[in-house]
């Protein structure tokens, strides 16, 4: 199984960081609101993508 880059987060890691359920993160990815790296069947979120998502969604 391919390994994720060390600085990337999993769906579960992003969910914990944002304080939401993993299903919410998967929906954000599916709706293309949160960009990801796809490595085989695995999904990883880079710190830059997470930062951009947060900045784009600040009120």
TrEMBL record:
Domain of life: Bacteria
Single GO MF annotation: DNA binding
InterPro entries according to UniProt: DNA-bd_dom_put_sf, HTH_17, SinI_DNA-bd
Pfam short name (any one): HTH_17
Ranges for domain Helix-turn-helix: 9-55
NCBIfam families: excise (TIGR01764)
Protein name from the UniProt record: Helix-turn-helix domain-containing protein
């Amino acid at each position: 199984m391919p390994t994720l880059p060390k600085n990337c987060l999993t769906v579960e890691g992003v969910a914990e960081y944002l304080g939401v359920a993993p299903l919410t993160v998967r929906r954000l990815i599916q709706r293309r609101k949160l960009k990801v790296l796809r490595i085989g069947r695995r999904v990883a979120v880079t710190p830059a993508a997470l930062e951009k998502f947060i900045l784009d969604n600040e009120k």
